[in-house]
Amino acid sequence: MIYLDNSATTFPKPDVVYDFMTGFYRKHGVNPGRSGFDAALETEEIVLNTRKLLTNLFNGGGDPNRLTFSYNATDSLNIILQGLSEKGDHVVTTMLEHNSVLRPLYCMQDQGIIDVTYVPFNAAGYVDPDDIRKAIRKNTKFVVVTHCSNVIGTIQPLAEIGKICHEAGVLFVVDGSQGAGSVPMDMVANNIDVYCFTGHKCLMGPTGIGGSYVREGVTVRQTRFGGTGVRSAYPKHLEEYPWRLEAGTLNLIGVAGLNAGVKWITEQGIENIHDREMALWKKLRDGLREIDGVTVYCATSVENQNPVLSFNIRGFEAGDVGTMLDVDYDIACRTGLQCAPKVHEGLGTIDIHGTVRLSIGAFNTEKEIDTAIGAVREIAAIKN
């Protein structure tokens, strides 16, 4: 199989991730922070080490306990967005967002808790920071923006948006699902108050693990309550981090895999991985553009871009193209709306059932990209 669905989840993972997860769970598959025996203490050390690794990776501000774990970015975004929102608040977001942002906002808007403004993106796939500025009101509580689009791969101007939010006294929340581990992140420099991430994409971890980093001074109302293994006689859920946003036993094998994944991308160099992927992306983009009947969306520059490419073939439904790529060429991709319907509203592809998305990862090769280009050329030739 030629795997070009890395925006959904990176595959395969580095061997060190598989090996570390197996070894860790065989030796340390016990509860951290609940007991004082050696295996429990060693497990807690791995958890704390992973918090430190991610805090450093994101330059969150220095306190690793403010790095909390969840199931994935969607889970963290629900915790954060609901925990920040109060009745009467206004929220600014964009047309580039994934349903992990849109649906919590829709839900709270339907409940009469918040009002939401959706800022559009331009023809190249970027949000204009000035549009964010214009959308902010006196009652705006926070701005939430995707780091990178999962449909067209554009990396948004976070530094400019963060500066606007900081000057306006508005919190800045970033959905880092597609950005964490793919491109460098500096929360402090970008004035980001909360950065949400998932482990199974560019951080090279397994599914079922994600989290967020909440900067000092940001108050997130608790929406979950339960066991923490600490101060058990206290009747209320603890307010201190990390327990404030964590309840129950962590996904320990997920944390272990994330630990190994972060170490791997750090050793390889995030920029090195990204540059190699973007060289393949450029080859893919240029090759598809030359095919009669193929429309490539956005993809104007290799700058501020992730290795994600969306296209359609004239005369074909996107889903049919995906099926042919799978069945006839053994190429795995993603078709449809990619859980981001407003992006397709902006692209004009909502009524034609979305696009075909090819997303490149660390283990793809030039030969695979050549095969993908040839496959699209053959399919397009059927009707063009």
Brief descriptors of the model:
384 residues; alpha/beta; Aspartate Aminotransferase, domain 1; Aspartate Aminotransferase, domain 2; 2 domains; 7-stranded mixed beta sheet; 4-stranded antiparallel beta sheet; 11 helices; globular
Structure description:
The protein has two domains: 2-11 and 269-381, Aspartate Aminotransferase, domain 1 (Alpha-Beta Complex); 15-267, 3-Layer(aba) Sandwich (Aspartate Aminotransferase, domain 2). It contains eleven helices and 13 strands. It has helices at residues 15-28, 38-58, 73-84, 99-110, 129-135, 158-168, 252-268, 270-289, 318-329, 341-347, 366-381, and strands at residues 2-3, 67-70, 89-94, 114-119, 140-146, 171-175, 194-198, 210-214, 294-296, 308-313, 331-332, 334-336, 355-359. Helix 2 (38-58) packs across helix 7 (252-268), helix 5 (129-135) packs parallel to helix 6 and helix 9 crosses helix 11 (366-381). The radius of gyration is 21 Å and the shape is globular.
